[in-house]
Amino acid sequence: MKSLDSKIPNGDLVSKWSQHKFNLNLVNPSNKKKYTVIVVGTGLAGASAAATMAELGYNVLAFSYHESPRRAHSIAAQGGINAAKNYQNDGDSVFRLFYDTIKGGDYRSREANVYRLAELSSNIIDQCAAQGVPFAREYGGHLANRSFGGAQVSRTFYARGQTGQQLLLGAYSALIRQMNLKTVKFFPRHEMLDLVTIDGHAKGIIARNLLTGDIQSYPANAVVLATGGYGNVFYLSTNAMASNVTASWRAHKKGALFANPCFTQIHPTCIPVSSNHQSKLTLMSESLRNDGRVWVPKKKNDLRDPNQISEEERDYYLERLYPSFGNLVPRDVASRRAKEMCDNGFGVGNTRLAVYLDFKDVIAKQGKNWVAEKYGNLFDMYHQITGESPYEKPMMIYPAVHYTMGGLWVDYNLMSNIPGLYVTGEANFSDHGANRLGASALMQGLADGYFILPYTIGDYLAKESSALNSTHEEYQNGVQFCNEQIKNMLSIKGNKTVDDLHKELGKIMWDYVGMSRNKSNLELALKQIPSIREDFWNNVNIPGTGKEFNPELEKAGRLADFIELGELMAKDALNREESCGGHFREEHQTDDNEAKRNDENYSFVAAWEYVKEKESIMHKEQLIFENVKLATRSYK
Amino acid sequence: MQLTLKIWRQSSAESTGFFEKYIVDNVTADMSFFEMLDMLNNDLIKQNKSPIVFDHDCREGICGTCGLVINGRAHGPLKGVTACQLHMRTFKNGETLTVEPWRAKSFKVIKDLAVDRQAFDKIMEAGGYISVKTGGAPDANAMPIFKENADEAFDSATCIGCGACVAACKNSSAMLFVGAKVNQYAQLPQGQVEHSKRVKNMVEAMDSAGFGNCTNTGACEAECPKEISISNIIKLNKEYLKFH
Ligand SMILES: Cc1cc2nc3c(=O)[nH]c(=O)nc-3n(C[C@H](O)[C@H](O)[C@H](O)COP(=O)(O)OP(=O)(O)OC[C@H]3O[C@@H](n4cnc5c(N)ncnc54)[C@H](O)[C@@H]3O)c2cc1C
Ligand code: SF4
Ligand code: FES
Fold first, then answer.
1. CA-CA distance, B130 to B100, in Å (whole number)?
2. Which ligand is nearest to the CA of B117?
3. Where in chain B is the domain with CATH 3.10.20.30?
4. Which are the contacts of A38, defined by CB distance < 8 A and separation ≥ 6?
5. Are A142 and B141 a contacting pair at CB < 8 A?
6. Which of A48, A71, A183, A558 to mutate to test the interface with B (most CBs of B within 10 A)?
7. What is the predicted pLDDT for the residue at A3?
């Protein structure tokens, strides 16, 4: 059993972080440039970390499979970023943001991490505003806010429906400034294929130049993975096409523990699937639930035009079931209720797998311009995809895979169980428990990158020699291993494409390991996923060679890892005999169909260890709550 | 529906390209343009032919990765829409579509429809930032900003860096892209300190990356999927002249 020391500092919740910062070792400023830190991923979490560490003086190498840091999927975040500024004077505070996040996560995250996140949230807004991020403002010139699910205060900062874009461009600007100063060397279109460990410590990576196919080793004193989430294991998700788990998975196979892999967030408001050619799903930001009202017809299979259905014939079920939070219940609750409505025959649209999100009332009250100013780009996007205008007809929405709370296990310092390997942003498991609240991922990625990792990494490096032995055999072995894997995949030349196989995996994941899970389905998934793996390694057809720009080959490598991850997700979901947040086990629900936690037996983080050709082993990190009382979440 | 596609194929930057003709059947109106290409690629792979390489990622019009010219129009026929957001209901059964990569000296073709846009990053490196270190920022509300300025800064900042403006311009000018970034910061008090240096450095980087000059044809604004206004170029010119 690995020892899982979360390294949560002693002391009271409020002073833990400041005391810890004081206790951390510092690297002498003149020595910093002798240390090489690799940052894999330049989304919000990676770009902010790389820029900040370069400012501090470290020699930073940043890698991304994208052509530019500005292309990372953080760019697509729409709705906003939380911060406990209390600019609205509506009773917000660090403690309230902390409390909402712990509760929203259904009590499956660490108190100390979440408190630190809430504490740093204000600094993030300050930092971004100073970088020139054009946040929405009021006529008085001050920053505007809106509300997000799971909160009764208005603490979400935003830039129209493009908050992620503006924040990422801010982090990108900080990063290119350092690139210009030559303190960061950026490797665009380079994909990390493996982690190099020497004597148990992370000492670099193996990466493939996607344009030439050249595979090389890159030694470093520490490695940071900021490689995003793994929602594409479901094939269809709101993630970008290339988002994948490879970096985390290969590190997992080198010994890094994978925590709570089954904690997946299904977002309630996405444009429904229209056909089996669909390649991805598009989110309609949660912010729309500020003003949009969710409903289905009271009558089953009511196929009339929604505008013909009178008020009395509509069931605004979220408002009915949850009078105090109404349309702003957390995502897991809203998603499950939408599914339930459709499963019970109240769904709308051609597939009956949709509910309405209606803006009629707000348009009548505030006018079309007001609505356009707030949500214009989302309405246009919806119109573009579906051919219908939400100004005239309610949107049709359905839940879709959106975010993965699970990820590599990290301690309070964001270090995995492999010394020298750090994991930040969506790639780690740390702050969102079993369900992430809206507008909290951007906050976490930037807190990790700007304000946490740059401190904590120094503590490790201060104790390490800066010398690197780039001729160590582990580097050559790594290169050889990756070259061979690619050669193997290319030599199969079977009769199935990567997409064919990925769709098969996605269907199993969605049907059996999706929004609603039960024992027999999970067992079915555990039977079927291995046969997809077999099929992949016998029947995949990858065109071209490994020595050229070959997107199909990239996709194949990623799918191979998704298949293995999928199996672990099913195993984790089967093991967790409770419902919590996004993990809903049908066997464990209350009389009114809410998730029923089992705090006595499952108040832990499940951290899985990879064992070659054997069953994975689970390690537990017990969660200890000293500042909040565990309660059944209620949004009624 | 059935469509005929004439697609640019080019195996590397060095090789010469050519158009290849494909007939695609079973295209449905609700498919996106890229889903139609996915379908074609899936078939090509099954026939052991090489699939068409094109850049894309978010498929929702925000990452700026996609970019191709359809029937002579950057990002296709619709105004304010990226290629990845284009749906097949825009086209008619039996139509022939010519699909090409961005063509500009500073954007070399990597393969087929994918081009290298690192020149954009080089321009940004020259000054597309406000020099503020992490940790030193004052309270965000300490500096009120007129809503009008904040909104204008935002409008300019919505540029996705796709390069359609360059591809659409007969001079391959990157003025719209540069102007948008310069104007974003020009609207904000935080951006003032480095303003003149930024204008000079970014324009120089643009020139040395081989982008052409603006001769006011307006093709960039017309083809920009984010409808970045050409007034950004007018402002950039004014700013540039001010300091030189
Ligand atoms: C549509 C959408 C809307 C959202 N809206 C919101 C919102 O309103 N508010 C909110 O708080 N959150 C939102 N989220 C969630 C949030 O955007 C993400 O969780 C967050 O941006 C992830 O940031 P990241 O830096 O961890 O990862 P990403 O931004 O995904 O970056 C990953 C980086 O890693 C690189 N990478 C990955 N693997 C490798 C590899 N093997 N080798 C080299 N490079 C690699 C990629 O190139 C990229 O640079 C949204 C998410 C989606 C999908
Ligand atoms: S200005 Fe418009 S066309 Fe040019 S890069 Fe920006 S978004 Fe693309
Ligand atoms: S793929 Fe992202 S903008 Fe088109």
1. 36
2. 2
3. 3-110
4. A60, A61, A62, A63, A204, A205, A218, A220, A222, A223, A224
5. yes
6. A71
7. 61
In the CATH scheme, what is the code of domain B118-243? 1.10.1060.10
* Active-site residue set of A: 331
Strand partners, B2: none
Decide which of 3.10.310.10, 3.10.129.10, 3.40.640.10, 3.90.700.10 is the CATH code for A267-397: 3.90.700.10
Could you give the CA distance from residue A222 to residue B171 in angstroms, rounded to a whole number? Answer: 46
For the record, the structure tokens of A362 come out as 């707000």
DSSP 8-state secondary structure symbol assigned to residue A5: -
As a CATH number, domain A473-622 is: 1.20.58.100
Ligand 1 nearest atom to the CA of residue A402, by list position: 53
Host H or E run for residue A99: helix A94-104
Question: Chain A contacts of B184, Cβ < 8 Å?
Answer: 132, 134
**Residue of the CA atom closest to atom 3 of ligand 3:** B61
Q: Please name the residues in contact with B187: beta carbons below 8 A apart, sequence gap of 6 or more.
A: A134, B149, B150, B152, B153, B156
Pair A245, A406: CB distance under 8 Å: no
Helices (H), A181-316: 246-253
CATH topology of domain B3-110: Ubiquitin-like (UB roll) (3.10.20)
Structure tokens at B36: 């139609």
CA–centroid distance, residue A172 to ligand 1 (Å): 13
Whether residue B32 has its Cβ less than 6 Å from ligand 3:
no
Name which of A537, A601, A530 is nearest A568 in CA terms: A530
Q: Are B64 and B48 in contact (CB under 8 A)?
A: no
User: Is the CB of B66 within 6 Å of ligand 3?
Assistant: yes
**pLDDT-based confidence at residue A43 (cuts at 50, 70, 90):** very high
Under the banding of pLDDT at 50, 70 and 90, the label for residue A162 is: very high
What confidence score (pLDDT) does residue A276 get? 84
Which helix H or strand E contains A296, and what residues bound it? Answer: strand A293-297
Cβ separation of B140 and A450 shorter than 8 Å?
no
The answer to whether A429 and A399 are in contact (CB under 8 A) is no
pLDDT of the residue at A312: 96
Q: Which residues of chain B are modeled with pLDDT < 70?
A: 244
Within a 10 A sphere around the Cβ of B48, how many other Cβ atoms? 9
pTM of this prediction? 0.97
The residues, ordered by sequence, that sit 6+ positions from A612 with a Cβ below 8 Å of its Cβ are A253
The letter for the amino acid at B152 is E
Taking one residue from A and the other from B, the number of pairs with CB-CB distance under 8 angstroms is 211
Ligand 3: does its nearest atom lie under 6 Å from the Cβ of B199? no
Q: Which two tokens stand for residue A582?
A: 């996004």
Q: How far is CA B130 from the centre of its chain?
A: 23
* B59 Cβ closer than 6 Å to some ligand 3 atom: yes
Question: Looking at chain B, which residues constitute the CATH 1.10.1060.10 domain(s)?
Answer: 118-243
Spatial CA neighbour of A79 closest among A229, A253, A290, A346: A290
Residue B103, judged by CB atoms within 10 A of its CB (0-12, 13-18, 19+), counts as: middle
Ligand 2 close to Cβ of residue B123 (< 6 A): no
- Residue closest via CA to ligand 1's atom 15 equals A441
Average pLDDT on A441-445 reads 98
Distance A230 CA to ligand 1 centre (A): 10
- The CA distance from A584 to B207, in Å, is 57
Residues on chain A touching B49 (C-beta within 8 angstroms): 543
CA torsion through residues A44, A460, A421, A18, sign = negative
Question: Which tokens is A588 given?
Answer: 């464990």
For chain A, the domains span 267-397, 473-622
Which whole number is the average pLDDT over A582-591? 94
Ligand nearest the Cα of residue B225 is 2
Q: One fold for both A267-397 and A473-622?
A: no
Ligand 2, atom 8, lies closest to the CA of B162
